[in-house]
Amino acid sequence: MFDEQPDALTLAAAFPAADRDAWRALVDKALKGAPYEKALTTVLAEGIRIEPIYAAADAPPPADAATRHAEAVDRVAGGWDIRQLHTHPDPAETNAAILVDLERGARSVLIRLDKAGRRGGTAATDPENAGVDGVMIDGAASLDTALGGVFLDAAPVAFQPGGGFGGLTELLFDLWERRGVANDAALGHVGADPLGTLASDGVLPEPLDRSLARMAELAARMRRDYPNVTTISVDTAPYHAAGANEAMDLGYALATGAAYLRAVETAGLTPAQAARQMVFSLPVEADVFLGIAKLRAARRLWARVLEACGVPEEARGMTLHVSTAERAWAGRDPWVNMLRATVATFAGAVGGADALTVLPYTHALGLPDGFARRIARNTQVILAEESNLARVIDPAGGSWYVESVTDQLAARAWSHFQSIEAAGGMAAALVDGTIAKQCAEAWSERERRIARRREELTGVNTFPKVDEAPVDVLEVDRKALVKAARARLAGETRDLATLTGGGDRATITPLTAHRLGEAFEALRDASDAHRAKTGTHPAALLVLLGEPAQHTARATFTRNYLGTGGIAAVDAMVAGPGDVPGALARAGADLVVLCGNDILYAERAAAMAQAFKDAGAREVILAGRPGEHEIAWAEAGVDGYVFAGDDTLATLRRLLRGLGIISDQGDGT
Q: Which CATH number does 65-432+472-507 carry?
């Protein structure tokens, strides 16, 4: 009897089959006339409409091997590469941080050269930019110091060298030789990205065509002499920071990759050989599903480009480095950045990143200390080693929602790529300003959503903490560092500037980098400056009308609303107009906000507004919409309204100008 198999237990057998039309009828009934599209769907910046529920019919055919990750089996066995970014200007301090990172979980290193180095110069040749936003690698000694104690045949070292990649590579060749690292044992990534550098910095140390040719020559040499070192980066961070949405970002990645394939072909490499020299670096924000879809779409699209170039299927894989997006990191309530880092890391891991860089939570404020670096590092370590996110090949694959978003995102990105190619390619679009215009338009739309709080940034445009305590960041003596760098260079015969070369430079207007919360944070900065001068933040008197049940909801909303602009709230129960002068005097506030329900407003708003104006209040506003009372309330002294969906940023700017906190230009006074 043990051989007999019981009938399958079907839990849904007693229920009728699910039907979308029947579900929709129930939804419409529950919405009670509210529009379905407005209540339950979301349209992303990329134009993708997100539905509340997905079924098999909504998904495209199952993803192909390229979408899932060409080398997924190897990745499952070894996990992804935990790669930490280093930007401290002092090579010795950078070295100390590198050794700690490698000892405690990081597998590779990412070094960003300072702006002088990215321009192909040094502290001696470009003192204005020396030590700014990167490590001062200006010659053999500083590179040797930064990488002291690092086994260059065990821990890959990647760079963000800007236009100085040619000189940096020569220094690397010297370093490998001095340390006895065999050609086939050297590991690393040079990171040559002329187009990305031109976009971000606005300058290359040589004409663009010469920089592309230099990149191609290095790629050919690396392939020939250093088989485990890659040369070329396709880094879309400049476009993403300038406002590009995810479809645009992918389109720029494809167009840049295609431009580099053409450039490297002139050095004698086939498309397949050139592709193996490339590492794509894509930023991911805190939208986990969009991030996963972006990375899956990237691999699918690049495989399509290589297919068009005649590359065999087995050689169409993409090497993918993912970084947490700089624009998503807030300078206010930076602790929330830890949560953003966790979500972005999850998206990168599930999306199939080969290497991941997590920015420290204080990145928007300055150089991270040891604690901030440890949190960034351990975010990856925990998700990799305790949550085992790399142990499943494409875990999001088969999700109707993720497959649908991946497919739509890929289609929009491909269309964007085609438009760039039709206009002459990425270099032409960058030089003639097309890219800058597209990014500026996308940023303007994103900024409008943030300004109206349709996109919420915790701690910035929602749930702010006005009396926020500062966090620790490292301070550096830039003048001393520049002096030390010049002393180092005195004995150098092969410094970065000399090895990079000189002559005419390629220049454009660089793309303007943004952070999502920058406009609200500027208001908070002005508020803090006012506090530094006067001892207090600007304040508003919240007049609580009626019982708690009648005013609590709008009072809570208003505290949150005003706090995003750095305006503190002082509560007061005011029974009637006779209590107004005393309440206003005790609060010491020029701004008054009436908080109650619609019934109380109809009865008391006009009289209370008039009383506060008579008592000397500079401005009286009301929490809620005016409706049919707008004219009467304006005549009584109500100057404005705050409510969900308004242009919060514009309202706060107007209020702060009225309080004398910012000027007409929006700057702190």
A: 3.20.20.240
- Domain positions in the chain are 20-53, 65-432+472-507, 525-658
State how far the Cα of 426 lies from the Cα of 367, in Å rounded to an integer.
33
pLDDT tens, 215-234?
A: 999 999 999 999 999 999 99
The pTM for the full model equals 0.94
Q: Over the stretch 105-139, which tens digit does the pLDDT of each residue have?
A: 999 999 999 999 999 999 988 999 999 999 999 99
- Percent of the chain scored above 90 by pLDDT? 81
List the single range of 121-135, 294-308, 486-500 with lowest mean pLDDT: 486-500
Domain 525-658 belongs in CATH node 3.40.50.280: yes
DSSP assignment, residue 130?
T
Residue 657 in tokens:
């100008």
The pair phi, psi for residue 376, each rounded to 5°, is -60, -45
Q: Name the amino acid, one letter, at 640.
A: G
124 touches 475 (CB < 8 A): no
Separation CA 468–CA 293 (nearest Å): 36
Q: Are 219 and 262 in contact, with CB atoms under 8 Å apart?
A: no
Q: Are 199 and 430 in contact (CB under 8 A)?
A: yes
Of 492, 427, 496, whose CA–CA distance to 166 is shortest?
496
Separation between Cα atoms, residue 376 and residue 256, nearest integer Å: 29
Q: Classify residue 274 as left (phi > 0), alpha (psi -120 to 50) or beta.
A: alpha
DSSP state at residue 603: I
Q: Give the helix ranges, DSSP H, for 194-326.
A: 194-201, 208-225, 237-241, 246-265, 271-275, 288-308
Alpha-carbon gap, residue 212 to 262, rounded angstroms: 10
Q: Which residue has the tokens 């269309």?
A: 415
* Residue 69, pLDDT above cutoff 70: no
Q: How far is CA 247 from the centre of its chain?
A: 15
530, 428 Cβ separation under 8 angstroms: no
350 residue type, one letter: V
Distance CA 269, CA 439 (A): 33
CA distance 514 to 237: 11
Q: How many residues are there in the chain?
A: 669
The residue type found at 399 is S
Q: Is 431 exposed, middle or buried (0-12, 13-18, 19+ CB in 10 A)?
A: middle
Rounded CA-CA distance 2/9 in Å is 18
Distance from C-alpha of 442 to C-alpha of 55, rounded to nearest angstrom? 31
Contact between residue 528 and residue 218 where contact means Cβ atoms under 8 Å apart: no
CA distance 669 to 662: 5
- Compute the 3-state secondary structure of the chain and give helix, strand, coil in percent, each to the nearest 5: 50, 15, 35
Tokens for 109, please give them.
């290193």
pLDDT at 65: 72
Looking at this protein, which amino acid is placed at residue 353?
A
Instruction: Give CA–CA dist 382/426, Å, rounded.
Output: 39
* Tally of CB atoms within 10 A around 503: 8
**2 pLDDT more than 60:** no
Residue 410 has pLDDT above 60, yes or no: yes
Residue pair 267/223 in contact by the 8 Å Cβ criterion: no
Instruction: Please give the angle made by the CA atoms of 389, 395 and 398, to the nearest 5 degrees.
Output: 170
Structure token digits, residue 326? 């700089």
Whether the Cβ atoms of residue 528 and residue 596 lie closer than 8 Å to each other: no
289: Cβ contacts below 8 Å, ≥ 6 apart: 347, 396, 401, 402, 405
